[in-house]
Predict the structure.
Amino acid sequence: MQRLSEARRSRWPQVRPRLGAVLLAGLFGTALGGTAQAGLGTAVEFYNAKINHYFVTAYPEEAAALDAGINVKGWARTGGQFTVFTDPAEGLQAVCRFFGTPGVGPNSHFYTADAAECAKVKTYPAWTFEGIAFHIPTPANGQCGGNYPVYRSYYSDQIADANHRFTVDLTAHARMATRRGDILEGIVMCAPVTDEEREADAVRLLEQASLGPSEALVQEVKAKGSEKWLDEQVPLNVTRYTQLPFWEQPMDNSLCKNDETLPVTPDKFCQTNKSSPSPVGWEFFRQSRTAPDQLRMRMAHVWHQIFVHSANGGAFEAYANADFQQRLRDGALGSFENLLLRYALAPQLGQYQNWVKNVPEHDGIRPNENFARELLQLFTLGVNLLNEDGRPKLDAKGQLVAAYSQSDIEALARVLTGYTFPTRPGQTPDFWGNRNYYVGDMIPFDQWHDKGAKSALAGRILLGAGGGAATEMRVAIKALVDHPNTPPFIAKQLIQKTVTSSPTPGYVARVASVFKDNGKGLRGDLAAVTRAVLLDPEARGARKIDQEYGRMREPALLWTAMIRALDITTDGMQPYSQGWQSSQMLFNAQTVFNYYPADYTLAGGGIPAPEFGIYTSAEYLNRANQVNDLLYNVDQSWSQHPLWGWGPVGYVPNAVGTRSPPLSAFVADAANPDALVERLNRLLLHGTMAPAARKTVVNAVAKVDAANPVRRVKMALNLMLVSIDYQVQK
Amino acid sequence: MSAQARRARLQLTSPQRRKLLKFAAATGLLAAVERNFALAQSASDYKALVCVFQQGGNDGENTLIRHDTAGYQTYAATRTVASGINIAQAQLLPVQPARGGPAYGFHSACGPLQTLFNQKKLAVVANVGMLAQPASKPGLETQGAPRPANLFSHSDQELAVQSAVHTGFERVGWGGRIADLLDAANPGTLFPPMISTNGLRTYVTGRTSVPLTVPSNPYFTLYSSGEGHYQYDVLRDAALREMLAQSRGNLYDVVAQLYAEEGMAASSVVFPILQNKNSVVAPFFASLDTDVGRQFKTIAQLIEGRAQTQMRRQAFYVHQWGYDTHGSQASIQSGLLQDFAASLKAFQDAMEALGLGGSVTTFSLSEFGRTFKPASNQGTDHGWGNYAFVMGGAVRGGDIYGTVPTPALNGPDDLGKEGRWIPTTSVEQYGATLARWFGIAEGDLPYIFPNIGAFANTKLGFMA
């Protein structure tokens, strides 16, 4: 129990100027409790950078005084808040508010919902009891059930300065330990969850777990709760990419070109429709709008950025890309080992990673190391040994420890020999004769497998002489699944690609532990791991205020989010093509390191920020222009063109183009700019748009002629979609 | 706030933010820029340093090959015809290094490089790579000599050669650190001194300077929301600027805002430059609508528009993807080198047309070379030391600098037995030679290359 830690130091010398709280006490005297009103209140958090103190108050007058800087200056809202009861009731505890006795105690406030603690602190001369601040439930067995846990941390410089922080944001709480040297004291109260907070959390879940919130789905998730919605998502039928028939690039490339003579038809665009992943990319955006299995769609999108295959260097045929991406959808919520195996054995990957037809050393030619290296570096272990919380292990000299060596790669490259393309129907299997064919898995030929004994990864892979290709490959995959690096390496990336770029070590460790064991002894149960990522207290909640929380929206997910929130009719062609400018042309990554480096950091510091790898001064303008086009230009006659327009183009089958969003639902609110902006704030930003930015948008909307309500809605949407608040998902 | 977070905020918010805000406010200067377009005088004192990065690890051993009989036979004994990556001697484009030694031949796709070499505008530096200290085979293999962290990994070695830090993860680059020092050389302008035409790679990222990314197309501006709606565009743009100027606590917001503000401010200067219908340099790229060609064209136009940006010292970065030729190397590398060589030559011609042939130096970097020994699937794997190329009128061209490695598997320059050359010239030595020419003071070199003290000779002689 650390609870009395502050009160214990009851006789501190007063050496610091009392910058803040004493004036608060003076402002309200001892009659603080008298201002409370019946029902619910909000405890609002403030921070004073000068004295590095936090402070919460549930008194609106006190909060207003701090906002206005009356009597006390230097306090700013952190964005943190939680709901409290203003009146006593069954099941609630009265919360005592204390202030450090001037000249004796610290310049800080202290709250406790523990009656015994309250009584005890009242006896300390260092503390002055100010009254009952509010009422609130307290944890039972350390848990808050459906309420938000309120965490308490405590800082003391051991001389005169001390301060508690109370927050419902676990990320912010956990980081107090390193930011200020706080002792983390755990859950001390349980804040009730309001209807608005439930809705905000539903929006947040859909930003993390789907291809984007829509008003209808938000209401569904809000009604069901996150857990139930996720559990219902897992078994839903898998949305399928249209399976395209086998097609082979003619030996003479000129036989598969795009013929741009008008009128253009899909058949005349052989290169785009047969020999590129474009049709699969179009379908991704088309399906994003209404597919019921949103969780799977999102997680497949996540996995395609970990288990990378690119038409740029890999299989370029449309049918092969559809088949490959379908593998990821099918396996996204199954077993990690199975997904990895299906990935490794995909002939598309064999082509991409040059391991199809990889053979033992002969005639001065070595086994190809490409897949062996990336299998270790990118798909399972990462370059350095990790602790279970994702932080790197350090050796005795404080140096990073490599997870594998060049000789491990060379050994694994020998394991990964002896596979060739699947056999085409009606043909006889032939290692060298089997030509590029991307239906089913690659097949082993033991005569082209390296028969020597192999040892890699400090004995984790130990293979005697004479083993077969399939057996040895599976042994190696199993060893990598079982390697202690894999759970944190994968867990961290899953969190980063859904929730936040810089997860705390605690968050990574909680997800990694579910990866190790789903509770039933199963390792790598991806449905359970995904659930752990999305239901973690650092993922859930109505608002996240830590300065190092959130993730830059990916260009592709910006588009799916707009398509879903605004119910945009699209055949997917333009959303897919826009990815080129934005460096996220789906299924066409420049390298196996994908659209952006998984280990990218913000400039100037070590703060993880993968998506910032493609967020630049030029990209901001790209996104602003894409939003602008979508809202204003796509329906204009000049933006129609049979080859590259926003309307239907000739080469896309069943083309409908990309239409401007139907905004009738929002037009109803256009007469009242504040109501309009608030509605969009709830849908797009879960109600957390920065007050100043919100004010800018309201003012701009109000300046648009009220007689043009559609233009008002578009102005609001334009500014909010382009706003930094929206671009950084929190 | 952690020390790390505080540092990030300080670096990204205080001086650079103020500077950019000032810059943004000054872009009412757009009208002035346009008005002055025809009148502007070019500063006579101008230098630019252009980095072109060959991402993936260019196979240097097939870019420049010994052309004399004995030398070629040694090459062909390892890179056999059967390996699928052999280049026939008859296809090579021969050159004779100025200070003697055997003849070499460029890859057949490198005709423009052969021309530049013969015109003494192109120098080759042999066996360049990232080192912790001067290295030897026994030192590295058996005596535990230090080596760069995660050698042979793309991502790590890209970071290493671009940051000039061998000890591990560092995302501030030596180009960015050069840009950090350019404010004094660029009086009277707030334009960003480092421009990338392909995103924020490590090389361009500074400690205090913020790089600008300009797309390699001419549409770097906010679009209109339709004809007859100019008043709404004005309203929208003003609201966007107002929001971007509002302070934020979240670090991702802060950085995202910074780049957005920079884009808004810079585009108003850059857009008219890229739209200049009377560009002298654009015609040199008329037949080069390629990835690298477009990037070099954009840079050439920005240099042409130096009167508008008022820059005297500028750094640029070009990124070419695709050199990770584990398979089908012959056709892939040939296409890449063709684009690389033709774009370099067009850029040099464009600079000469501006009278800046000797004021602009272009150099190549790649994260590593490739194994001399071939691999399955007609490719090669990750190596280490590699050829680098330096182009410009100030280059002592027509020659090979540094030490060409002994082309023997398990030979004295091979780490292991697959032909991964132990570099004999470190990135610091190569970079310092370029930085000195660019005007970086001797005393500032350790800021740019923290490990420069580990290497004796940092004047390689390829710059005049």
About this structure: The CA atoms of residues 433 and 460 of chain B lie 6 Å apart.
